[in-house]
Amino acid sequence: MDSNFPSEKLEEICDDECQNKTRIFCQRCPSLVLSPKQAKLVKKEFFLPNMFQKNDHTPIEGVTLNDFWLVTNMMTFDNVGFSKAVDNIMYLICADCEMGPIGWHSIDDKKAYYIAVARVKHG
Amino acid sequence: MEEQEILTTLKILIIGESGVGKSSLLLRFTDDTFDPEQAATIGVDFKVKTLTVDGNRTKLAIWDTAGQERFRTLTPSYYRGAQGVILVYDVSSKQSFNKLDAWLNELETFSTKQDMVKMLVGNKIDRSNHEVSKEEGLKFARKHHMLFIEASAKTNDGVQCAFEELVEKIIQTPGLWETSGKTIRPGQGGADVSQGQSCYCVI
């Protein structure tokens, strides 16, 4: 399910203040990415490469996503991995199984870390 | 599940020669489905990990050199503020062991914390062609006041243990870290004290 999130589903995962109601996990392994009420839901268009792609397959395939959890301090994450920067973008991955990208961070903005709502598990 | 307060935030470095398996140590820090195909072609820069040791929940920022060591371009900022370091060699490579002194020198030069906790990890013990014996590793570690463990990132032997021992030692070192919240003393973090874990590290 690598599409954008249906809006009625968004209500289930975010509270009145647009913060995450639930814990946020990796989709593939039990790794906890964020604890409740640590991130804010924002609308932002961003192209993320697909999580599954055959190796050596160019060009990079991906999808433009709109719904992201915004975290302002990297130490807010319970567990997360950062890729090396590519064109000033670091991709966020699961810290344990390295599944990703589950989000992104621009090195030009030290106070913004984005986790794609569609690429994590809520619960 | 109730969220326990974070005791402290620690900066941990992983250093050593290229090819000794630093990145896979970082990957195999926790047990999971290891999928070599998944290994990011971009490479991992660093990770934020939450680890509970002796009931104390700590947050770690773990920095891998991400291959920069090949070009000897590790910057002072890489070392700045680090409370712990994991120095890795490959037990099947004498050359990687012989370079440990140079790494310690670099650490001495750039580290900003006097009593930084150091751990020596002999990696790749799953290999058959050992060029460095456990005794040699142990002797080096003793000489330089380091914790020591042999590990295999491939089989995950000793990896979790290495991080836990390192963090435990840091927490036991007064003045090396700061509490991020209220006053919590080491070993009194709560009911979640993990017991019966078989970790053997030698100082």
TrEMBL record, chain A:
<dbReference type="Pfam" id="PF04421">
    <property type="entry name" value="Mss4"/>
</dbReference>
<keyword id="KW-0653">Protein transport</keyword>
<dbReference type="InterPro" id="IPR011323">
    <property type="entry name" value="Mss4/transl-control_tumour"/>
</dbReference>
<dbReference type="GO" id="GO:0005829">
    <property type="term" value="C:cytosol"/>
</dbReference>
<dbReference type="GO" id="GO:0008270">
    <property type="term" value="F:zinc ion binding"/>
</dbReference>
<dbReference type="InterPro" id="IPR007515">
    <property type="entry name" value="Mss4"/>
</dbReference>
<dbReference type="GO" id="GO:0006892">
    <property type="term" value="P:post-Golgi vesicle-mediated transport"/>
</dbReference>
<keyword id="KW-0813">Transport</keyword>
<dbReference type="GO" id="GO:0005085">
    <property type="term" value="F:guanyl-nucleotide exchange factor activity"/>
</dbReference>
<dbReference type="GO" id="GO:0007264">
    <property type="term" value="P:small GTPase-mediated signal transduction"/>
</dbReference>
<dbReference type="GO" id="GO:0016020">
    <property type="term" value="C:membrane"/>
</dbReference>
<dbReference type="GO" id="GO:0015031">
    <property type="term" value="P:protein transport"/>
</dbReference>
<dbReference type="InterPro" id="IPR011057">
    <property type="entry name" value="Mss4-like_sf"/>
</dbReference>
<keyword id="KW-0344">Guanine-nucleotide releasing factor</keyword>
<protein>
    <recommendedName>
        <fullName>Guanine nucleotide exchange factor MSS4</fullName>
    </recommendedName>
</protein>
From TrEMBL, chain B:
<keyword id="KW-0378">Hydrolase</keyword>
<keyword id="KW-0636">Prenylation</keyword>
<keyword id="KW-0653">Protein transport</keyword>
<dbReference type="GO" id="GO:0015031">
    <property type="term" value="P:protein transport"/>
</dbReference>
<keyword id="KW-0449">Lipoprotein</keyword>
<dbReference type="GO" id="GO:0005525">
    <property type="term" value="F:GTP binding"/>
</dbReference>
<dbReference type="Pfam" id="PF00071">
    <property type="entry name" value="Ras"/>
</dbReference>
<keyword id="KW-0547">Nucleotide-binding</keyword>
<dbReference type="InterPro" id="IPR001806">
    <property type="entry name" value="Small_GTPase"/>
</dbReference>
<keyword id="KW-0813">Transport</keyword>
<dbReference type="InterPro" id="IPR027417">
    <property type="entry name" value="P-loop_NTPase"/>
</dbReference>
<dbReference type="GO" id="GO:0003925">
    <property type="term" value="F:G protein activity"/>
</dbReference>
<protein>
    <recommendedName>
        <fullName>small monomeric GTPase</fullName>
        <ecNumber>3.6.5.2</ecNumber>
    </recommendedName>
</protein>
<dbReference type="InterPro" id="IPR005225">
    <property type="entry name" value="Small_GTP-bd"/>
</dbReference>
<dbReference type="InterPro" id="IPR025662">
    <property type="entry name" value="Sigma_54_int_dom_ATP-bd_1"/>
</dbReference>
<dbReference type="InterPro" id="IPR050227">
    <property type="entry name" value="Rab"/>
</dbReference>
<keyword id="KW-0342">GTP-binding</keyword>
<comment type="similarity">
    <text>Belongs to the small GTPase superfamily. Rab family.</text>
</comment>
